[in-house]
Amino acid sequence: MNRTRYLATGLFLVAALLMQGCGKEEPPKPAPKAEVPPPPAPTVVKIGSAAPITGPQAHIGVDIRNGTQLAVDDINAAGLTIDGKKIKLELVAEDDEANPTKATTVAQKLVDSKVVAVVGHFNSGASIPASKIYSDAGIPQISPSSTNPKYTQQGFKTTFRVVANDDQQGPVGAKFALQKLKPKTIAVIDDSTAYGQGIADTFEATAKAGGAKIVAREHTTDKDTDFKAILTKIKGRKPELVFFGGIDPQAGPIARQMAELGIKAKFMGGDGIQTQNFIKLAGNAAEGAMASMPGLPKDQMPGGAKFLEKFKARFNAEVELYAPMGYDAVFVFVEAMKRANSTDPAKFLPEIGKTDYKGVIGPIAFDDKGDLRNGPITIYVVKDGKWDTLEVVTPGGPPAAVPAEPAKAAEPVKK
Amino acid sequence: MDIFLQQIINGLVLGSIYALVALGYTMVYGILGLINFAHGDIVMVGALTALSVIAGLAGGAVPAPLILALALFAAILVCVALGVSIERVAYRPLRRAPRLAPLITAIGVSILIQYTAALIWSKQYIALPEIIHPTQFTLAGASFTDLQLFIFLLACGVMAGLLWFLKHTRLGKAMRASEQSPDVAGLMGIDVNRVIAFTFLLGSALGAVAGLMVVLYYGIGHYFMGYMLGLKAFTAAVLGGIGKVNGAVLGGLLLGLIESLASGYIGDLTGGVLGSNYRDIFAFLVLVVVLVFRPSGLIGERAADRA
Fold first, then answer.
1. 3-state helix vs strand vs coil in chain B, percent to 5
2. Taking the CB of residue B284, how many other CB atoms lie within 10 A of it?
3. Which of A92, A139, A199, B229 has the fewest Cβ atoms within 10 Å of its own Cβ atom?
4. Is B226 a residue whose pLDDT tops 70?
5. Smallest CA–CA separation between A7 and chain B, in Å?
6. What is the CATH topology of the domain spanning B2-293?
7. Is the whole-model pTM more than 0.90?
8. Least CB–CB distance from B125: residue in A24, A56, A233
9. ipTM over 0.90
10. SS3 state of residue B239
């Protein structure tokens, strides 16, 4: 009898739990826009999108996917005609789970479903292995966010990005820190991923060259939650600044645990921590944290205000990070198709390199490797629980604006 | 020296959390000889339930201690229901099956709970609203909070309570009898099914407590958090001698200390070749060495025929 009672209560509670859950699931995926098909059936051209849609970094991946979706919708609404044929773009969105292995599977899937171009991936660790597959298939790839220098240095003709890379971002962050904070001692932590280690390496190299002493170089992983041990070690070395190369699920707890251990050092990171999520996870400890972020501040982007409004109206969400980059990437593809007068990747790929486009994020042009020319980098600081713009730096733009040492800094990542 | 002391404190607190989770593993193993791989996920469900309650009530008129009590109550309720249901549905029908079968169901249940939790709480990290403000103390240059002290004392207290319970209460004696021989215990008038269900009830309630502690200590929760935590706690239980209540706590504390000291000093000891991200190697190396010399763990008795 007791048994049955246990069972009944148990099942009831589980059921109640499940039902309650249904109410507050993840934000609903954007419903496919109901379009009235125009009388002559347009040719469908598929554009791929690859980003982490699930997992700890899902908020950033969904942001990118929504940005590309918005671009596709806008282009379709305006109508696109190439080589006399009406074209309808279709977005094929895939989830790479921020996982390098999954990224190659997803890349192959996109290639097999005959996309003509890919916006993605988010993580450098995913973009790099996937780029080989796109390159072999001759499909152009624009990453909205991968900042590891290696991505465009593999000799592939198909790799582009619309953000400044870590050869630029790391040194800019380090230069800024040295000029403004004048720390004599710095501790550097990374999350052992291509992105985290890459930006931490370039930061460390520039900071060292600038005369600061690196008192500790620690590694964690992108799954950890307990950083007390490495932070205690760092505390013993008494740094004035702690730099973290990684993403917010680790950066938040690190900032929190630094405060708990009584570490007074300033906290700084790259674009991976410049999110609302970081502030939520770090709580009060987020105050005063700094981050460099490729691109202009959202509201200072030439097309920023209008884009933010449109994005909010469409998805009922604020732009997290890279939605504008994803949006522009689609337009870069379409502009190249128009110039080549073809939707064949083999035909319009050479045109991408010649891009000169005024996007939401500002002027977009690529150098011979596929890197964004003169990508601006913004330094942010957390003030009253919000990311505040501190300074905008344009590396390599007007010569000697920021005399970075990319050659030296890049050494550990090149090969 | 103060840094070394700080690492010891870090290790003891981390170890106490492992110990709280390990107790759940060890109790079930002691009676059923079953490794309940879903236990780590029960802890996760407890943690996320507590988080939801806290997030729902924080900032309102409810005082913080009451919120914590309600969170603990809700977590225990959900975890106990879950734990007892799992036992009834997934393990009891297989009790006479070969040993491999319940082990595989356990892994299946674990995955089922994880992804159900992902549906309910989403796959994102969830932050704890700041409702508690631990007071910081300093001891010889090392700092610790009252929360850390509480977690440590809780692990030791729960262990002592369990030892007493098993030794002196009727139900505790019934549990030990069922452990030695379920069949004979049944002949002696012990309702073995009830005893086992109670073991799961107790283990799951402990899991809920551990979950709340993890949430309070780290300030975040995540649907996958039970996996690694469960694995580490299981390791701790084996290290101490699985099936032994005091072994679980000893193993947990030891594992926490090893991890903490390894993260703190491994980089310097290896001249920077191995970073602190390799700390798990040391934890598992110690496990292998202990098992080679003492296959039943540090304070485990020689494995009986059943095991």
1. 75, 5, 20
2. 16
3. A92
4. yes
5. 6
6. ABC transporter involved in vitamin B12 uptake, BtuC (1.10.3470)
7. no
8. A56
9. no
10. helix
